[in-house]
């Protein structure tokens, strides 16, 4: 793709030419009037196409058009236009380079990703979502499409049973034995086709496939094959090709930051890096939720997944811990921290932290009470701050599998702390073990300034949460400053009753 500009007087025009195989596309735009034009031409051969492209460029240069040397218009997303419909030149270059079969640009037969009955409608809805709102969460699009209620005039039958229950577990064939099976089947096929169209459509528009969308699309393709088998139809070559192409597609590689590389090197463990991208929000959550706990064979210790937000501060903190313990690597640091933590009892550590913080006990107890207002707490890890939209920026992440089934040990594997009010890693381990035994919490994410714990089940009651708040404030006094205005302990207790995550942050003082 090459972009040219023409500026004369108060007028300005943009001219962009692109080519692929035997196709050539030309986009023109008059900046002043806003008039736009897009044209695709197909030539008899690749050489003919290249000759025509060179001639078009030469002609435009003679008119005064000059190549963008910097600030070239970036084409992030690709959308079909009515005049050409499904077409390689209205598809992301990564899509057209990888998905080369003709059926990707046809709405027939029914197996193709963008079939005329369901897939094409899903693609157009996805294009509309991305172009109008800028929303790029394809998995959200797919799930919201599944949740759409059927209108009163729709005769599709809904049955509240898992889809798998409609199949023979031995053969995988469809087995529906109730009145109106075809109507039920229509609803199932619609959901299947939407999942497939969402995955392929995301690549067609953005050149990127979300991990959740990929997983759902592969499952949906397999379900379509099961449907065919249940109707005694032969295997579909198209579905087989779609499955193969989708599994072999690779998202663009982005090099990890120096901090991420340094942390991974210190850990010496298997790790996946999610770049700072608008696409990684769903990907890292999906990968974390699908990481195997305790999955090692032969009785060996299992894995506990952990998300790490890398930065220079965390990297330097890990290096400092190696130096302070006078050992060679983080593994030896971990062993020393765990040995020290064996001598500590988590509840006692919390009381000691509270004593050292010198809380005004009378004032503190007076603040303990019912929540002062209605509160909404984010049901996700604290990478996003719903009350501070300006802080909702993409962040690089590392997903690492820590080789232990004792997740309370994780603060020893990633030893941050010991600054300001942040407890030392030894104290963190003791407290985490105590809370895990009592509340089943699991450390989920670590940054240079804090931890997020996942809570599998809600706190039983408000009074129990009120007691827990005391411990949490001892552990992390800055909790009282969370949010745009300070929360009272009673507010925090109300949040804990429904929260799925506990977030502890110890901001570093300048």
Can you walk me through this structure?
By secondary structure, the protein is an alpha+beta fold. It has 3 domains: 66 residues, Single Sheet (q64v53_bacfr protein fold), CATH 2.20.140.10; 161 residues, no CATH class; 246 residues, no CATH class. The strands form 2 sheets. It has a 6-stranded mixed beta sheet with strand order 6-8-7-9-10-11. Strands 4-3-2-1-5 form a 5-stranded antiparallel beta sheet, with helices on one face. 32% of the residues are buried.
Tally the helices: 17
The parts where pLDDT drops under 50 for at least 5 residues are 148-181, 293-299, 360-393
Strand order of the largest sheet: 6-8-7-9-10-11
| Structural shape | elongated
Domain module count: 3
Order of helices and strands: EEEEHEHHHHHHHEHEHHHHEHHEEHHE
Mean pLDDT score: 79
Cα distance, first to last residue?
47 Å
The helix content, as a percent range, equals 40-55%
Strand content: 5-15%
Main sheet record: 6 strands, mixed
Structure summary, number of beta strands: 11
| Rg on CA atoms, Å | 28 Å
Q: Which structural class matches the secondary elements?
A: alpha+beta
Topology record:
Elements: E1 2-8, E2 11-20, E3 23-30, E4 36-42, H1 46-62, E5 66-67, H2 93-98, H3 119-133, H4 138-147, H5 181-206, H6 211-230, H7 237-248, H8 258-267, E6 271-274, H9 280-289, E7 304-308, H10 312-324, H11 330-341, H12 346-357, H13 361-367, E8 397-402, H14 410-413, H15 425-439, E9 442-447, E10 450-454, H16 462-475, H17 489-498, E11 501-505
Parallel strand pairs: 7-9
Antiparallel strand pairs: 1-2, 1-5, 2-3, 3-4, 6-8, 7-8, 9-10, 10-11
């Amino acid at each position: 793709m090459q972009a040219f500009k023409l500026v004369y007087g108060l007028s300005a025009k943009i001219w962009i030419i692109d080519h692929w195989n035997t196709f050539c596309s030309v986009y023109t735009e008059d900046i002043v009037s806003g008039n736009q034009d897009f044209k695709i031409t197909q030539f008899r051969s690749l050489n003919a196409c290249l000759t025509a492209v060179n001639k078009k460029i030469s002609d435009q240069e003679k008119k005064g058009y000059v190549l963008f040397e910097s600030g070239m218009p970036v084409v992030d997303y690709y959308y079909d236009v009515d005049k050409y419909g499904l077409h390689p030149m209205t598809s992301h270059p990564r899509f057209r380079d990888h998905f080369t079969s003709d059926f990707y640009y046809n709405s027939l037969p029914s197996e193709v990703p963008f079939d005329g009955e369901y897939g094409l409608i899903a693609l157009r809805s996805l294009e509309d979502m991305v172009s109008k709102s800028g929303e790029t969460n394809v998995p959200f699009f797919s799930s919201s499409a599944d949740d759409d209620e059927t209108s009163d005039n729709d005769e599709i039958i809904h049955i509240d049973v898992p889809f798998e229950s409609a199949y023979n577990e031995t053969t995988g064939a469809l087995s529906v034995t109730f009145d109106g099976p075809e109507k039920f089947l229509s609803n199932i096929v619609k959901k299947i086709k939407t999942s497939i169209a969402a995955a392929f459509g995301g690549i067609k528009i953005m050149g990127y496939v979300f991990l959740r969308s990929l997983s759902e699309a592969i499952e949906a393709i397999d379900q379509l094959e099961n449907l065919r088998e249940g109707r005694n139809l032969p295997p579909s070559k198209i579905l087989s090709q779609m499955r193969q192409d989708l599994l072999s597609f690779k998202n663009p590689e982005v090099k990890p930051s120096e901090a991420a590389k340094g942390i991974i090197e210190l850990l010496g463990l298997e790790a996946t890096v999610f770049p700072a991208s608008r696409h990684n929000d769903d990907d890292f959550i999906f990968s974390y939720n699908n990481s195997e706990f305790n999955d090692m064979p032969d009785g060996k210790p299992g894995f506990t997944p952990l998300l790490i937000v890398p930065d220079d501060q965390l990297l330097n903190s890990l290096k400092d811990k190696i130096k302070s313990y006078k050992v060679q690597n983080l593994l030896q640091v971990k062993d020393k921290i765990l040995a020290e933590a064996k001598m500590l009892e988590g509840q006692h550590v919390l009381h000691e932290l509270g004593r050292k913080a010198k809380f005004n006990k009378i004032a503190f107890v007076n603040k303990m009470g019912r929540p002062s207002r209605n509160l909404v707490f984010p049901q996700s890890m604290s990478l996003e701050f719903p009350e501070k939209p300006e802080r909702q920026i993409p962040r690089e992440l590392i997903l690492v599998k820590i080789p232990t089934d004792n997740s309370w040990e994780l603060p020893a594997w990633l030893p941050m702390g010991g600054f300001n009010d942040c407890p030392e890693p030894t104290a963190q381990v003791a407290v985490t073990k105590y809370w895990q035994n009592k509340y089943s919490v699991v450390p989920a994410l670590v940054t240079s300034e804090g931890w997020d714990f996942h809570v599998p089940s809600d706190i039983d009651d408000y009074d129990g949460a009120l007691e827990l708040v005391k411990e949490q404030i001892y552990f992390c006094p800055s909790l009282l400053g969370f949010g745009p205005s300070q929360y009272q302990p009673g507010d925090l207790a109300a949040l804990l009753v429904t929260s799925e995550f506990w977030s502890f942050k110890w901001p570093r003082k300048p």
